[in-house]
Design brief:
Strand order of the largest sheet: 4-3-5-6-11-7-8-9-10
Shape: elongated
Order of helices and strands: HHHEEHEEHEEEEEEE
CATH architecture of the largest domain: Ribbon
CATH superfamily of the largest domain: Umud Fragment, subunit A
CATH topology of the largest domain: Umud Fragment, subunit A
Distance between the termini: 18 Å
Number of domains: 2
Number of strands: 11
Radius of gyration: 18 Å
Structural class: alpha+beta
CATH class of the largest domain: Mainly Beta
Largest sheet: 9 strands, mixed
Length: about 200
């Protein structure tokens, strides 16, 4: 059984994919069937997503659900939220791992490529953040001393505070644990946090 947050993500992804494929939104019944819940429960989920600023429910009219991105394109930057940053075969940023998009104001973030991931308990959690927050990264292969970065170690990615030392990198990982890496691939540098009220 899916927890609430996973169900929100599933509904968002299904709605986004459906609109991309068909040019119009799914009905509440179609969303309910996909999510495995009742239509009345689906309505509550959709209204909560609307309150979080992710969709517009269309006032309850049939096939009028729209993604907020459709109203802000040109003035906002799409940031894909990944379930996993690295696939099992070692590929970075696999499209099949995109859960949904967060749209951020271009005036604040400017040019560049961005990605995001949800914070979990068994990760390095930056000061002021909590489990369930989304950390937004700017894609870059460089980071400064003390930066929070997305680091690829072998075939997995992890969030760490990075410090340059004589032998390579000192990474601060979950629960404050540190480890020295002679080599580490930097995938991005953390620049912001997004807390969705869902």
């Amino acid at each position: 059984m899916l927890d609430k947050k996973k169900r929100y993500e599933k509904i968002l992804k299904f709605t986004s994919d459906y609109i991309s494929k068909n040019g119009y939104s799914p009905t509440l019944s179609e969303i309910a069937k996909k999510a495995g819940i009742s239509v009345s429960s689906t309505y509550r989920y959709v209204k909560t997503l609307e309150s979080a600023g992710l969709i517009d429910s269309g006032g309850g009219k049939k096939r009028k659900i729209t993604l907020k991105s459709e109203n802000v394109k040109g003035r906002a930057i799409p940031v894909p939220v990944f379930s996993e940053i690295v696939s099992t075969n070692g590929t970075n940023f696999p499209k099949e791992n995109i859960l949904f998009y967060i749209w951020l104001p271009a005036s604040r973030f400017g040019e560049g490529e961005y990605f995001a991931t949800e914070l979990y308990e068994k990760q390095f959690i930056p000061l002021g953040c909590q489990e369930g927050d989304y950390i937004i990264f700017k894609k870059t292969a460089k980071a400064r001393n003390g930066d929070i970065a997305m680091i690829k170690l072998e075939k997995a990615a992890t969030i760490a505070m990075i410090k340059y030392v004589t032998d390579g990198f000192q990474l601060t990982l979950e629960n404050g644990k540190t480890q020295i890496q002679k080599e580490a691939e930097i995938l991005g540098r953390a620049i912001a946090m997004q807390r969705l009220n869902i």
